[in-house]
């Protein structure tokens, strides 16, 4: 199991790097060429606040629900963060429409108090993920991983 964080742009293997966001790589005739496939552009904002909220809600919900089409059971990683919580709520609501319960998994680490600041909502991820699981009515399994500080020394 990997730790809870890694350096952006670095992979977990030596001498392997990660592509920049919104990029793809072409290897041809012995050469690597990295190209962007998407670039954010700014434009005049013409929607009202309520229109923007409604359209954003539609886009988020639609993009999540499109990923729920599967011939095998699906699950999600619940970190307790805003993005995974939104995904979980949307997926759980969609599953509930057909009487299904959505499964989630969460990972916590011993010594979280050493490596992470305590948030206003929860000192570790476990209580917040438990709260979310109860509110959204999903089945959550949590794995507790030991860190090197937790292991006995000889």
Query: Which blocks of ≥5 consecutive residues have pLDDT under 50?
Result: none
Strand residue percentage: 15-25%
Helix content: 25-40%
Order of helices and strands: EEHEHEHHE
In DSSP terms (H or I, runs of 4 or more residues), the helix count works out at: 4
Broad shape: extended
Give the class from helix and strand content and strand pairing. alpha/beta
Radius of gyration: 20 Å
- Provide the residue-averaged pLDDT: 80
Please give the order of strands in the largest beta sheet: 3-4-5
Distance between the termini: 23 Å
Q: How many strand segments?
A: 5
Main beta sheet strand tally, sense and closure:
3 strands, parallel
Short description, anyone?
This protein is an alpha/beta fold and 154 residues long.
How would you explain this protein's 3D organization?
The protein has 154 residues and is α/β, with parallel strands linked by helices. It contains 4 helices and 5 strands; from the N terminus they run ββαβαβααβ. The strands form 2 sheets. It has a 3-stranded parallel sheet with strand order 3-4-5, covered by helices on one side. Strands 1-2 form a two-stranded antiparallel sheet. The longest helix has 18 residues.
Task: Describe how the helices and strands are arranged.
Blueprint: E1 23-28, E2 31-36, H1 49-66, E3 75-77, H2 82-96, E4 103-109, H3 112-115, H4 125-136, E5 139-145
